[in-house]
């Protein structure tokens, strides 16, 4: 990061960013706008400085460089408590924000031709996602298959390089790091995979599996101490430390997921990315793993980014919620608030479609059944991407991309021109 | 197409000499069904004494975790059990009084599709990737009804229309991979409904789908069922879906039905510790939960079942008797059974 900053606009890099933020915060000149422009400009720095320049004089009066990022998040309409506590927030937040993602974009090129490969288009898998994660907090990301959840996860742990945007873990921008620095920085963000049957190498013992991170990050635990550390990890996740020499096939699904969690915890990360961690497990086992994750969060102060399609599980575990549709965030904010009063039509449809295990509520829910399928991310609709399936869509939806921001009828950020609270999960009667 | 022509020939005598059906008898009556798998590790009793009835126009859910025997029950009813290693060793599956297990292969084959049809979980692997959707749908009519290719194709288009696939006339010549997950499941439903079956078995029909698509499919199923007053046997592990669509429910655990009841009663006051724990362990979208209660341990291995009650090792109220004596089916109410020695403690009257 330092290298990079030094190269381009050494001293000014921070201030413009702040200014941009402030500007966004004050008016409707959009964080979402930043998102929209990002794809065109391509490089992160460009986007940032461009914004900075544009809004420079709009001038946030003396925002410190740190609070800058904070308010940035706010303006990006990403902050969890947009109301009230604005003044107190900056100081606290800065210290606590473990993960900051700004305007993250990932486009996969579509090429044609064998010898002369031409780019004929792009799959816009992730298109301008911003989010914040504080220490000890859980952010749930929900959305249907193809909405970009998993691409987002891959970008965050560095399996894919973003097209533009920034991913800051404890202030370090992963997208600017290379080689050894990147390797070291990745330690702080680890992943628990969906399928415990395919994510554990069947030829390795549990000890080798959980200890493998130490082979790569050799300075974390001295060689002699590794076995003992692995046993501690096994104990931490509720497995018998004596089973260190067993192979994955000797464990059940729930136990394997515990192994996956232990492996993710080996490097003592602050952020754990959980990509559908319980969806492959049986119902009676899911609760065990969910409770384990909650216990570990309390004990170790972990932050979770919890990606799932099961909205009931997410409601149980998440403090904050982000709803994705076709690569964009359509609603973002306090989880409780979104579940009780979703304001984006897509969120409403999504929540209303979840069956509630209570026959008394049958037919009483405000059920919205969406027509059709999700459009292709290679050729998304103009303006609001949900408009093709939305019952509220009007002309403006096709012309103008709705920004993700707090609106008149939405206490949390919502990317809908016609945001309106509607309780869909409880009986309508 | 030699298979088709061969089958056509055999289809001619339509009843194939099967016993007369009694239209006053229940649509489907499963009694004391026993299925075992003979494996190298021993004999696994996958289904052990399943008994239930299904009436026309009703929906019965069979709820259970993986390995509880719910899918095997469905396969045994449908007559598509892989044999070996699976064998039906006892009990009866009666359709309008006729025991389907006693029919010969040919008679059974004729019933599949026209009397009992099945929707499978994974539509992509259940459809043949090398034939068009229209061909696969039309095959039903050509084999069972002896229709010409042209007529069968027309029928296929009608069916795609029925399950609300837009542009059915164009899409009939598409291959399965050209459809989205939800559309593929619609094709599966169309195929199951082709011959107007009286009983429809849906084995986890929406498990692989997103919630909004799940809602579409369940709505479609419910409408079609009501229209044709079919009996629907819904195999699932999702207690939410069950609460939404089922009339009656059979909860399976380790090959046995541990509790059977009308749906409204079971959610309100379960009469078996397993059902009760299960209901307490699922997070709900309409409630912000506290810590989820956990069912400790794992389901038993079917080749090494514990003596006595199979749930006893995981049960919060297990006593000495539970480890020794397998609980019979106690009558909780007129249409309710529970296989727990102490059901009256779980279920305060």
Which SSEs are present, and which pair or pack?
The complex is a heterodimer of chains A (429) and B (349).
Chain A: H1 2-7, H2 14-26, H3 31-41, H4 44-55, H5 65-75, H6 89-96, E1 97-112, E2 118-134, E3 138-142, H7 149-157, E4 164-169, E5 172-173, H8 179-186, E6 189-192, H9 206-216, H10 226-236, H11 253-265, E7 271-275, H12 283-300, E8 303-308, H13 311-317, E9 320-325, E10 328-334, H14 335-340, H15 345-352, H16 395-399, E11 405-407, E12 410-414
Parallel strand pairs in A: 3-8, 3-9, 6-7, 7-8
Antiparallel strand pairs in A: 1-2, 1-4, 4-5, 9-10, 10-12, 11-12
Helix pairs in contact in A: 2-4, 2-5, 3-4, 5-6, 9-10, 9-11, 10-11, 11-12
Chain B: H1 2-11, E1 28-39, E2 42-54, E3 59-63, H2 70-78, E4 86-95, E5 98-99, H3 105-111, E6 116-119, H4 123-126, H5 133-144, H6 149-162, H7 168-171, H8 181-193, E7 199-203, H9 211-228, E8 231-236, H10 239-245, E9 248-253, E10 256-262, H11 263-268, H12 273-281, H13 320-324, E11 330-333, E12 336-338, H14 343-346
Parallel strand pairs in B: 3-8, 3-9, 6-7, 7-8
Antiparallel strand pairs in B: 1-2, 1-4, 4-5, 9-10, 10-12, 11-12
Helix pairs in contact in B: 1-5, 5-6, 6-8, 8-9
- Largest beta sheet of chain A: what is the strand line-up? 6-7-8-3-9-10-12-11
Strand count, sense and barrel status of the largest sheet of chain B are: 8 strands, mixed
CATH homologous superfamily assignment of the largest domain in chain B? P-loop containing nucleotide triphosphate hydrolases
Distance from first to last alpha carbon of chain B: 62 Å
In angstroms, what separates the terminal alpha carbons of chain A? 56 Å
Binned strand content of chain A: 15-25%
Coarse shape of chain A:
globular
InterPro entries (chain A): AAA+_ATPase (IPR003593), ABC_transp_ATP-bind (IPR050319), ABC_transporter-like_ATP-bd (IPR003439), ABC_transporter-like_CS (IPR017871), Oligopep_ABC_C (IPR013563), P-loop_NTPase (IPR027417)
Biased composition (Low complexity) (chain A): 16-81
GO molecular function, one term (chain A): ATP binding
Protein name (chain A): Dipeptide ABC transporter ATP-binding protein
């Amino acid at each position: 990061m330092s290298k990079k900053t030094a190269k381009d606009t050494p001293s000014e890099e921070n201030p413009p960013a702040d200014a941009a933020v402030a500007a966004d915060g004050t008016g409707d000149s959009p964080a979402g706008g930043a998102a929209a422009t990002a794809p065109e400009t391509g490089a992160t720095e460009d986007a940032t400085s461009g914004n900075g320049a544009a809004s420079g004089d709009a001038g946030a009066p003396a925002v410190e460089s740190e609070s800058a990022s904070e308010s940035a998040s706010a303006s990006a309409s990403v902050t969890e408590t947009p109301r009230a506590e604005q003044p107190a927030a900056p100081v606290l937040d800065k210290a606590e924000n473990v993960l900051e993602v700004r305007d993250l974009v990932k486009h996969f090129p579509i090429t044609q031709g064998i010898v002369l490969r031409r780019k004929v288009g792009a799959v816009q898998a992730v298109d301008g996602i911003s989010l914040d994660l504080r220490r000890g907090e859980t952010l749930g990301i929900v959305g249907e298959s193809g909405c970009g959840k998993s691409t987002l996860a891959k970008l965050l742990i560095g399996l894919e390089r973003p097209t533009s945007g920034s991913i800051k873990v404890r202030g370090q921008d992963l997208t600017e790091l290379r080689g050894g620095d990147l390797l070291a920085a990745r330690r702080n963000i680890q992943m628990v995979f969906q399928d415990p049957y395919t994510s554990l190498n069947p030829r390795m013992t549990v000890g080798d599996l959980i200890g493998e991170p130490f082979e790569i990050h050799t300075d974390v635990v001295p060689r002699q101490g590794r076995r003992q550390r692995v046993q501690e990890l096994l104990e931490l996740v509720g497995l018998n430390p004596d089973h260190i020499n067993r192979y994955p096939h000797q464990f059940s699904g729930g136990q394997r997921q515990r192994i996956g969690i232990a492996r993710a915890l080996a490097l003592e990360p602050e952020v754990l990315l959980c990509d559908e961690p319980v969806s492959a497990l049986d119902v009676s086992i899911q609760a065990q793993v969910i409770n384990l994750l909650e216990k570990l969060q309390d004990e170790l102060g972990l932050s979770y980014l919890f990606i799932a399609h099961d909205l009931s599980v997410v409601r149980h575990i998440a403090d904050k919620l982000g709803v994705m549709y076709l690569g964009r965030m359509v609603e973002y904010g306090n989880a409780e608030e979104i579940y009780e009063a979703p304001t984006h039509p897509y969120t409403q449809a999504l929540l209303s479609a979840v069956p509630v295990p209570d026959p008394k509520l049958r037919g009483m829910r405000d059920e919205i059944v969406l027509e059709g399928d999700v459009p292709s991310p290679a050729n998304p609709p103009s303006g609001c991407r949900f408009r093709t399936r939305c019952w509220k869509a009007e002309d403006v939806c096709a012309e103008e991309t709705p920004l993700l921001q707090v609106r008149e009828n939405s206490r949390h950020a919502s990317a809908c021109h016609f945001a309106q609270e509607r309780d869909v999960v409880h009986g309508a009667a | 197409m030699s298979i088709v022509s061969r089958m056509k020939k055999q289809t001619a005598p339509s009843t194939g000499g099967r016993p007369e059906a009694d239209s006053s008898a229940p649509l489907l009556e499963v009694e004391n069904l026993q299925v075992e798998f003979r494996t190298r590790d021993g004999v696994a009793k996958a289904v052990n004494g399943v008994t239930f009835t299904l009436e026309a126009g009703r929906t019965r859910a069979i709820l259970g975790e993986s390995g509880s025997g719910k899918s095997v029950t469905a396969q045994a009813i449908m007559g598509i059990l892989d044999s070996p290693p699976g064998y039906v060793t006892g009990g009866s599956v009666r359709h309008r009084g006729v025991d389907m297990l006693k029919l010969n292969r040919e008679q059974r084959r004729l019933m599949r599709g026209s009397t009992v049809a099945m929707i499978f979980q994974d539509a992509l692997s259940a459809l043949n990737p090398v034939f068009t959707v229209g061909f696969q749908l039309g095959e039903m009519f050509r084999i069972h009804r002896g229709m010409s290719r042209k007529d069968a194709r027309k029928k296929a288009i009608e069916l795609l229309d029925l399950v609300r696939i837009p542009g059915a006339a164009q899409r009939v010549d598409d291959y399965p991979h050209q459809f989205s997950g939800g559309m593929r499941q619609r094709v599966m439903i169309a195929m199951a409904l082709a011959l107007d079956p009286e009983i429809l078995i849906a084995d986890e029909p929406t498990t692989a789908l997103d919630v909004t698509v799940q809602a579409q499919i369940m709505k479609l199923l419910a409408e079609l069922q009501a229209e044709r007053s079919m009996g629907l046997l819904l195999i699932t592990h999702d207690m939410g879906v069950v609460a939404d669509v089922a009339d009656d429910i059979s909860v399976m655990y380790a090959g046995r039905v541990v509790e059977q009841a009308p749906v409204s009663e079971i959610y309100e006051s379960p009469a078996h510790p397993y059902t009760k724990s299960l209901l307490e362990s699922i997070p709900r979208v309409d409630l912000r939960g506290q810590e989820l209660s956990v069912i400790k341990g794992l389901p038993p291995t079917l080749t090494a079942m514990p003596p006595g009650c199979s749930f006893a090792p995981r049960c919060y109220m297990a006593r000495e008797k539970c480890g020794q004596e397998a609980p019979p089916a106690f009558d909780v109410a007129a249409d309710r059974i529970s296989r727990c020695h102490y059901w009256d403690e779980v279920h305060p009257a």
